[in-house]
């Protein structure tokens, strides 16, 4: 049972827009801690996709965007491409655990 | 280019101690704005933060693993290490090392990550 809750899977056709939600609580996202997102293609290490709720590292296309409100955050991907198929994880800090916590991951399938 | 590389045994017997080292290249591990962390991923499952250490030796650990975990840093060798004692099959996982940004009192994002190393706990 992950501290942050994500849908197990989402899907969309090429060119479409999909969103992945990440729901936390008053001790993590709701406490004001930032949310970060990672992309993990099969058999590889996770890679930073969004940091500080809505910032993209150099090299990440602007098709990827993040937002945060209350105890939840979302990752939006527009102009879906086949190469976007991967597992996506959200991450934040939890003050009651004094530790960084992850969501359970969401498998994105491009139809 | 900043890189992290894990090293250590791929097979550990139950009840023994898992030991891994992560070497940082392309920069110095002595920076004050970062923690150096270990994250694991059991086969087919999600990510779990084990804990981290600053260059000055300040540590934090996952409460569920705290009694069995020790993370240490050697700035002269630009590497940090993980020791996990009394392992069981449940500790079988890919172990990643990563650099965690730290600012305004908040432990933040992980970047970069090592490629990961699979550790199997089996007799």
Beta content of chain A comes to 35-45%
Query: Which chains share the greatest interface?
Result: A-B, 25 and 24 residues
Helix content class of chain A: under 10%
The H/E string of chain B reads EEEEEEEEEEE
Unreliable spans of chain A: none
Radius of gyration of CA atoms of chain B, rounded to a whole number:
14 Å
Structure description:
The complex is a heterodimer of chains A (111) and B (123). With 111 residues, chain A is mostly beta strands. Helix content of chain A is 0%, strand content 44%. In chain A, a hairpin with a 2-residue loop joins β5 (64-69) and β6 (72-77). Chain B has strands spanning 3-7, 11-12, 18-25, 34-41, 48-54, 59-61, 69-74, 79-84, 93-103, 106-113, 117-121. The model of chain B has no long low-confidence stretch (mean pLDDT 95). In chain B, the strands form two sheets. In chain B, strands 2, 4, 5, 6, 9, 10 and 11 form a seven-stranded mixed β-sheet that branches. Chain B has a four-stranded antiparallel β-sheet with strand order 1-3-8-7, with no helix packed on it. Helix content of chain B is 0%, strand content 56%. Chain B contains no helices and eleven strands. Chains A and B meet through β7 and β8 of A and β5, β9 and β10 of B.
Q: What are the key terms here?
A:
heterodimer; A: 111 residues; mainly beta; six-stranded mixed β-sheet; three-stranded antiparallel β-sheet; B: 123 residues; seven-stranded mixed β-sheet; four-stranded antiparallel β-sheet; 11 strands; 56% strand; globular
Summarize the structure.
Chain A has 111 residues and is mainly β. In chain A, 0% of the residues lie in helices and 44% in strands. Chain B is built from no helices and eleven strands.
SSE topology:
The complex is a heterodimer of chains A (111) and B (123).
Chain A: E1 9-12, E2 18-23, E3 36-40, E4 47-50, E5 64-69, E6 72-77, E7 86-94, E8 99-102, E9 106-110
Parallel strand pairs in A: 1-9
Antiparallel strand pairs in A: 2-6, 3-4, 3-7, 5-6, 7-8, 7-9
Chain B: E1 3-7, E2 11-12, E3 18-25, E4 34-41, E5 48-54, E6 59-61, E7 69-74, E8 79-84, E9 93-103, E10 106-113, E11 117-121
Parallel strand pairs in B: 2-11
Antiparallel strand pairs in B: 1-3, 3-8, 4-5, 4-9, 5-6, 7-8, 9-10, 9-11
